[in-house]
Structures are given as C-alpha cells and as structure tokens.
Write a structure and sequence with these properties.
Ten copies of one chain form a homodecamer. Chain A is of the alpha+beta class. Chain A has two domains: 4-69, Orthogonal Bundle (434 Repressor (Amino-terminal Domain)); 84-143, Cyanate Lyase, Chain: A, domain 2. Chain A has six helices and two strands. In chain A, strands 1-2 form a two-stranded antiparallel sheet. In chain A, helix 4 (48-58) runs antiparallel to helix 5. The first copy, chain A, is globular. The termini of chain A are far apart. The model of chain A has no long low-confidence stretch (mean pLDDT 95). At the I-J interface, helix 3, helix 6, strand 1 and strand 2 of I face helix 3, helix 6, strand 1 and strand 2 of J.
C-alpha cells in the first residue's frame, strides 16, 4: 500500500531527475510554495484535483494522487532540532515565545492565533549588507469562550 | 544583587499599577514592540540610554537600568509548551519546519537564516471573517563556508 | 503581587472553612461547574463581573477578582499522571485517541475539534449496577485550509 | 504468524479498495463505531462471532477473525501527540484534568471513573456557527476500599 | 493550611518520640498495617472515625484527622527507584510483568486486576535458611466490556 | 543462531496450534506456572532437563532446549507500562512502595527482600462479588552488612 | 526533625573545623574507610554503638547518632555523572559491564554478585610511572532459583 | 563490510560450537580475561598479532582479525541497566560513588582515576558462607593542572 | 536513490581498500582535513568541483559527487557521547562553557561566535612529556541587533 | 558554611562594584583568563596562594580563599544549551565531533585527548570582514593500554 512517505520519495527523485524545484511544482499546482512543499513532504493533504496536477507535472503514478489527497497524521520530532537552518527558527521561538503571547493577547484579548486557519510565505529580500530571509505568517485569532 | 528576573517583576507590577501596556513602553523607549517586550522579559539587553528611558517611564529605581543593559543568559524551556497560545506557534514550526529549510536553501544556497541579525513584528490585521494575527520575521542569510 | 496560585489557595481555604463546594461556587457565578472550577484552579480567565461574584461569594479580597480576570499561562504536566482518577482518563485518550481521529475526520473531513471554542459537562448518572460518571465534550470543527 | 498489526493493515487496505467507512464496518458487526474502530486498530478484542462479521464484511482471510478475537497488549505512545486532531484532545485533558478529578470526587466520594467498564460515542452536531464534534464518555464509578 | 505532607511529618515525629511502630498505629485504628501505613504516608484517605483514632493514639492536633480524611492526589515518582529495598520489587515487576498478564488473562479472560478494589498484606515467614518476606495481594478481576 | 526471542515465538505458535495453555506447559515441565511462563518469555533460564521437557511437549526442535537453558540478559522497558493489566500492578507499586519498605524494615531490620531467591504464585479466588486475582510473592530477607 | 542530610552537613563542618579526614573518622569508629564514609554521606546505617563513636569523635550532638543509626532511603542520581572523578568510574562500568556479566556467569553459573552482602576497599598504590588508584570489591554470588 | 558487531556474533557462534569459554580465548591470545572479552565484545581494539591469535584459535576468517584491530567507537546504553547482574554493579556505583570521590581525592589531591591507563580483574573467591565475586580495578591517578 | 550515508560507507570502504587516510583525501581535494572529513561524513556539502576530486581520488561512481554536493540535513545525537575520545571534548564544553561565554562577551560585547562562518584545525604537537592534541577554532563574532 | 556558589556570587558582585573584568582578576592571580574564570565560576580549584591573590584583589573575606582552594564537584547541565553564545559551541561539537575522533586517532593511534592535562585560550583576532573569536585547546594524548 503506497504511503505518504513513498510519495515524498518519488517526488524527491522526480525533482532531482527533472531538475525542477519546489517553486515550479507549486506553480503547476496553483498553490503557494510553502503549502505545496509541506503537502509534498506529507504534512498536509491536497484536494484531488490539485494532487492530480502535482502528479501530472512530475509524471508520477496515478495512485500517488490518491495518497496526496489523504488526510495525514502529522508526526514531527519534539527533540531540539540539530540542523542549523531549522534550529535557528527554533531558537527564535524560544527567545521570543513569551513576548509573542504578551503582544497577541494585548492586541486581541484572551485567545490564540489559529494554526489551522493559517498561512505562511517565505521570500528572499535583497539587502545591501546581505540578502535577508523574510517569513510572513498569518493566523485567525480565536478567543476563548466561557460557558 | 538585582537580577533580570527582579526587573521583569518590577516592570509587570508597574504595568499593572500604571495601566500602561507594552506598546506604550516600547514607544517611550523608541523601540519596536517585540524587541522591547523581549528585553523587559530578560531575553535581550538594552543600550544604557534606552534602558534609562524604560526605567524613567515606569518610575523604576536607577539600578534597574543597569540590569536591563547587562548581557542576558538566554534560558528557555525545551519541553513542548503547554500554553495554547505558544503551543500553536510550536506546532507550526513542527508542521512547516522542513518546508522552511527546503525553501530557504532553494532560494539562497546552503546556509541559514540568522537568529542574531534578526527582527520580528506582530500586527492585528482586520478581516471580515475574524481578525488575524500577522507575524513578519526577517533574518540575514548566512552561507556556509568551506576551508 | 498576588498570583493565580495564591488565589487558588484562597479559594480552597474558603471552601474548607465555609463548607461550600464547586457546584455552589459555579452557581453563584452563573457558570458551568467545569469552567468555573478550571478558572478557580488558574486554567482559565473570568470576565471581571463574574470574577467579582466568585470573590463576593467566598469573601475574598477585591484584588483576587482582578487576578481571576487576568489571562493565564496554562501550564500542566506532560508526564504520565499518577493519580488513578486522572490516569484513567489519560489511559482512555491513549486507547481511543486514534479511533477518535479516524471518526472525526470520517464525519467532517480533514481538520480538528477546537480546544478553544469548546465546552464540557460532567454528571453523575444513576445505574443499577453502580452509578456512572458521564462526560460530555463539545468543540467546533475547524477545517484545514490550503493557500 | 498473523499479528494484530497485520490485520489492521488488511482492514485499511480493504476499506480503501471497497470504499467502505468505519460506520459501515461497525454496522456490519452490530457494534458502536468507537469500539469497533478501536478493535480494528488493535486496541480491543472482539468476541469470535463479532470478529467473524468484520472479516466476512471485508472479505479477509479466516485467520484474521482469530487474531481480532485475541486479547491485545495495549501499547500507545506516552509522548505529547503531534497530530493536531489528537493534540487538541490531549490539551483538553491537561487544561481540565484537575477540574475533572475535583468534580468526580465531589459528586461520588474518593474513587475513580473506570476505564474498563467504559463506553464512548462521537457525533457530528449541526450548528449555525459551524458544526461541532460531540464526545460522550461514560464509565462506572469505582470507590476506594480500605481494609 | 495543613497538608497531607505536614501530617506525615507529624506522624513520623510522634512515632520516633513515642517509640511506637506502624503495627501499633494500625492496631489502634483497626486497620491492616499496609493500608494504615499508606494512608499515614498520604497515599490513601481514612474515614473520619478512623482518622480520629490515629490522631488520638499519636496525640496529634484535631485538624490532622480532617486532613487524613481528605481525598489525596496520589503522586509517586515514575523514575526507576534507587533504594535497593524498593528497587527489588520494581525489578520483579519488570521480570515477571508479562508473565503476570499472560496468566491473569489465561485464568479470567480479557480484563485486569483492579488496583482500586484491592488489598495487600506483608508478613515475616520464619525459614531455616533465612526468614522470608511474604507479600499477598488480592484485587477484583474486571472484564473489558464491548458496546 | 537461534535466539531466546525466536524460541518464544515458536512457543507461542505451538501454543496456538496445539491449543495448550501455560498451565499445561508448566505441568509438563514440573514447574510452577509463573516461573515456567517467565522462562518461556525469555526472562529466566531452565535446567537442561526441564528445557527438554518443554521442547518435547511442544514438538520444538532440539536446539530450542539449548537456548532455553542459556542464561538470559533480562531486558524490560523502564517506561510507564501502557497495557492496563500491567499498568495496574505498576500503579500498586507506586502507591504502596514506600509502605512496603517501611513494613519490611520494621519487621526485619535494615535490608531488602531478595529478587533472586524469590518465588511467586498467581491464583483465581472465587468471590461472590466477583472473582479475585491473588498474587503471593516470597523472597528471602537479605540484611545489609557493614565492614 | 534532624535528617541524614543535616548530619552529613554537620560532619563536613566538623571535618573542616577540626582538620580531620575520613580515614581518621573511620579509625575512630572501627570501620573501613569506604563503609564509614558512605554512612556519613547518608547512604548506609551504622549500629548505634558505632554511630556513637563517630558522634563523640566529631563532638556532634547526641541526636546525630540516632539519625546515623536509622535506615536510609538510598537516593542517587540516575543521570550520567558530570564530575570527571565519578564519570570515569561510570565510563568503566559502561565499557566493561557486559564483559563483567559474561565472566561472572562463566565462573559461577546463572546469578548475580550481591550488592547487599558486599564490601569495597580503595588504596593508593605507589608506581614509578605515577601512583595508581586500586579498588577492590567483593560480593557474595547469589544463584537464581527456579520453583 | 565486516563490522565489529559481525565479529562478535562470529565469536559467540564459534564459542557455542567449539565449547570454549572466555578464559580459553584469553589464554590463546595471551591477554587477561577482562580485556580480551571486552575486545571480543567490540569495546576495545587488539594489536594485529593478538587479533590473529584470537582468529586462529576460533577458526574465523582473516578479515575478522583486521576488524578486531580497528579502533572502536565505544557505545553503551546510558539508561539504568535492567539485567540484575549488571544492575547490582550499577547500584554499587550509585551508593558508593560519592564516597569513592571523597577517598580518592583525600589520598591523592584534586584529580581523577584514569579510565584509559586502567586494568581490571575478576576472580571467584571460595568462601564457607558462599563463594564471592572479587573485582580488582587499578587506574593511574591524573592530577588537574592549572595554567 | 544514493544517500549521503551511502557515500560515507563507500568512502570508508575505499579508504580501507586503498590504504589512504583523511589527510590524503583532503589534499586531493585541496581542503583542510577537518572540513573535508566532516563533508565525507555527511555533515557539510562540497562544491561540485571539489566533490569531483574526492570521487576521482577514491574511484567512486560519478553520482557520489552529486550527493557530496547536496546540502545536508545535519543530524547529530543530543545524548551524552559515550566514546571516550568524543566524551572528553564534551566534558570540556561542560566545564568551560560558561567561562567561554564570559570571556567572549567581555572581549566583544553582547553577541556570539558564529558556527557558520567558522573553521577549525587539529594538529599533533610534539612534547617531551607526551605529545599533545591541539585544536584551533575560529569563528566570526556576530553582535546582537536591536530594532 | 560558605560554598563555591556563594563565592561566585561575591566575585560577581565585586566585579560589578569595582568595575574590574576577568582579564584583570586573572592578571592579579598570575593565571590564564580561561582557567581563572572557570575557577571563579566554581569549576576548578586554585592553589591556596593563588586563591589568596584573587581574594585580596577583590577584597573578599579570607574564608573565600579557603573555599576557592577546595576540590569542586563539577556539575554542568547535560541538556542542550539555550543561550546562543554557548549553543553555537555545542553545535560545533555536534557537527565536527566524529571528524575530531577520526583525525585524532589517525594522527596518534587508539586513545583520547586528555581533559585533565589540558589548557585553553580565547582571543579576539582583528579581521577586515569582522573580528573573529579564536579558541586554542591543547590536551595530552593518552593511548589505551591492553593487559
């Protein structure tokens, strides 16, 4: 039975062979780069039509589209990440996490930023002292209810 | 000896008593809300002048400015956060962490987004289906060097 | 500075001294038993008016109402619980957690049951072979969005 | 030797192939959805007759019924769950666990809600602001004995 | 507010001062040694009358009886025990735990030995090659139910 | 090279195929049920003659008797057990472990109950309110020596 | 109530003040250095007479002898030790632990070296290339029994 | 590529088949039993000549001698050992570890016992109350240097 | 799909077969020993040309050069290392880590030593009392910025 | 009883009050900056004369010199460090640890770099693209011995 991990491997192999990148796959599927990449890595589901576009673009078997459309069980490591590129983001959440909570709740009241009704964008910003990575995240505010 | 934790307690007490918020403290110190809040929580150091402005605005003792200007040892919990407001951000880094690395390195080459030459902004964005939290992060790209 | 933990201690002491129970406190505050108890234990915030009713009913100092209305940082242990009454619930989530996900997503599509727009009720149900504990939980379904 | 994990894989494959869902399997076995799903996932045993109904409905080999009727060793992860659908339930037990104990023991005396003499139901409840997941759990109260 | 830990300390101090042992305290309370000791250590509650007998026998303040009658939150360490006397028991449960499950379920069917409707006795048994510790545990069998 | 785990699998397969139970295997080997089961699960070694009786009774290959007679490396999980049948025993050791130490050392002096010179028996005891599991453990007392 | 930790502190203070060392304390108590030191550190109990000799030699209060004669709960850290002097011993048990088991059981049969009927000695051995630490441990062999 | 683990398996198989023991292997290699056993288990390297003697004695392929002479990466579990024979040694290091440090540094000054310039011997000592395991360890003392 | 782990295995096999060492591989690639070794172990990427030199020198397949040039996900164990050669470095970072921070920030101000713009060299230094390992590390200082 | 932690606090307070830095304290004691700082932080012992110089320079009480000369128990956290300045060094040991072992043992044979006969130096090196932190470590090579 083909799994999401199998499909991720197929996508990586097709990427290397065809010399395409995530931006091109996302464009073929009419999706943002971040969401499309996360779905190809098995962390989100695609609508059947969108899954078909990814599979067509990369010449994968049809069953791969079925698998991309299934609802994933999201599993990620809870250990401190070791890869420096991911660790730096982890460090930022450690250093600024409490400030984030203070400011969100100061601006909105008691509640949270949704991680479900959520989107994110990553861009390269040219800068004279060295180009910068820009990440924009946006999530719906959800207030606590009492009853 | 007055510690950073002592000063954070003083700031919280003054905030409650005076009815000021983080945005007003940051404005008094000519700083962004995120950086100022993180420094008041003990996770960053302020320049002596800036520290003085915070202390004056909140009527804290002069020694508090000395402490705010000291270089902190940044200590944060590595356990999974339990507060829902902070957990949701943690969940986002778990779900999208690998996609972040894929896209940063696709756009820039082998390297990382700096967590030191870094800034962040949090805003409330009005939206008809419910207002949204927007977070913008920007860090300098640092390429690996060989030797 | 009076903390949520201080107020919880005051409430427990007043309960013991006055011989009142959680049901009576909740009734005085026009709240459900579960929500009111969780707020008294420091895991939720009360609206200022409601906080005042709790404080009046238990003859606590006025500052306690201010504290009950503050937004808590929810901290709970992530270790396996040892108290048998709480452990059994934990065991149930372990045994039935995957079935819960299968059935929620079969009935609703890819998404989650909200833990924010959520309520819960606990009742004693008479039964000839021994009375039963009944727990009813209700949370809004939140679908994942793509972008 | 066919294991419970093997049978779960067979059931998932048959579900996908035949396009049946958990509700239909449970109906074929005259069981509730929650109990039947948990047994198919290897967390409970079925009576031999009931196991036979599941196996017949899904056209599995006869040995699968023997395995479904065996007594399982219930193994589940004690780490914080990462899938958001399961995590939210985990968060609820963390936030309301102590309140649960307070109210059960206020209503019944010193003791616990059984996790063995126990049942659970999950329903979709229509709601104008968005449909809701409703979970009803019921367990026999067991008092502590002294001796 | 007097806690269970406070009362345990009072009991230990009174034991040392009066030179009484657990067997005598249990006899004064008309309880088994194991249950009485566990309650004095804060792991079980006593009925109010029984608590009064313990308090009278040891000349403790009346409030101690109230505390002994309260329902405890049972907290014990989940780390491997280091004291050799307790470790050996832990080792036994590790070496024979699976055999215990095999034999209980072979004799009774799918289910468990209750830890709530449960009693235990510890005796010194004279033996020519060295006296032996004998532990007898008895718990009600609870069968799983399907629904 | 045939391992203890291989032999345990062979024993389980032979048990299922022949329809014999642990009690019958133990009787064939002239051993108690608990010790024989633990040795078949790889946690104890059998004398060569006894191992031969188990192997003959279950029609296993001769090499299996050699393996059953080897000295095992006893490996068991130190995590909190999740199976409810084993967890309840674990809970009992947590709730009563300190009381066990208090009473053993009150009756014998400073020392321990041996886990090596040790035996255990598990029986079904008929009871009008529901049959009970009875566990009897006996271990030699070993006093600490000074030097 | 004076604890073993209190007495260890008293002994360390008296050692520093009087300028005596562990060898002299052990000689005063007619004990080996290792056992006497471990008892003073709270990891073993002394007979009342021996405890009295330690207390007399160091001019401690009489109650300290009562405490030294009590049966300790032996608590030690299960984390990897960080002090280099203790870590090296830990490393030796890691590197040679399996070889130890192989050779003990080759020489004696299935069983263990007792840690209760046990003694140890530490000596300085002069050596031309640098003096050496010599540790001699001796424990009774305990064979497993079947039943 | 043949690994150290492969060679350990070959040695165990040859031991069982030829009926030789560790003492005989060590004698063939002109090594102490402890060092030779530890090298055969992959925790130390042998000189090429010595490795050849082991390989010849056990009729292993020539490549095995190359592997026995390679420098190992020493990997051992940092969890509490579960096998009783190894656990007892672990317990001894926990109970007497601090006393060991006190006495080594009292006899030598600030420094450690080397685990590199180190040897160990294990012997069976006849004793009327039961034979004893004797372990003698010897390591060079290494003083700390300042600079 | 050939992975970095596969290529590391190929390099180790070629090293053993050809009898070359890391210094020779580094020389063939015009790289420092430390960087070249770390890249061969999968912890850094090589430029395509440099990767080709390594592959040519060791007669590996051409695809190995593609893999050596890919950007690695750096994964390393966060447990305490057990191999003594690596542990000693770990111990040094534990003993001197805080002093390192004190002195770097005393010399440079608030900030860090970069681990990205970084190089390291390892040399054997002859010494009459025994040769010494010398490690020289150099990293760019990165100051914190406020905003 | 004054502890090493007490003395570290005294030194930090005197540093702040007198406006001296670690370099000046080290110069007063005729020690390297790294060793002197580590001893002031409680991780190494000073000779009595040297300890006296530190205490004189900072006007601390005489007992502080006694404490600085005592042999410390070196305790450091084994968790992943969170402060970025220390984390970057930790990351380096993770990324380059295996390469370090490969190269040390290629240059010296089977053995380790001593962490006891060891020294370290930290310098600021001017550089046109930004000044650099240089760390030089030197430790005696210790070969494994067989026996």
């Amino acid at each position: 039975m083909m799994t999401k991990a199998d499909v991720t491997d197929m996508i990586r192999a097709a990427k290397r062979e065809k010399g395409v990148n995530w931006a091109e796959i996302a464009a073929a599927a009419d999706l943002s780069e971040v969401f499309c990449t996360s779905a190809c890595l098995g962390m989100n589901s695609l609508l059947p039509d969108t899954a078909g576009k990814v599979v067509d673009f990369l010449d994968l078997p049809a069953e791969a589209a079925v698998v991309l459309a299934e609802y994933p069980t999201k599993i990620f490591s809870q250990k401190v990440p070791t890869d420096p590129c991911i660790y730096r983001w982890y460090e930022i959440t450690g250093v600024f996490g409490e400030a984030f909570k203070e400011l969100v709740q100061e601006k909105f009241g008691d509640g949270i930023m949704s991680a479900i009704d959520f989107d994110m964008d990553i861009e390269r910003i040219a800068h004279e002292k060295g180009d910068r990575v820009q990440v924009i995240m946006s999530g719906k505010f959800l207030p606590y209810k009492s009853w």
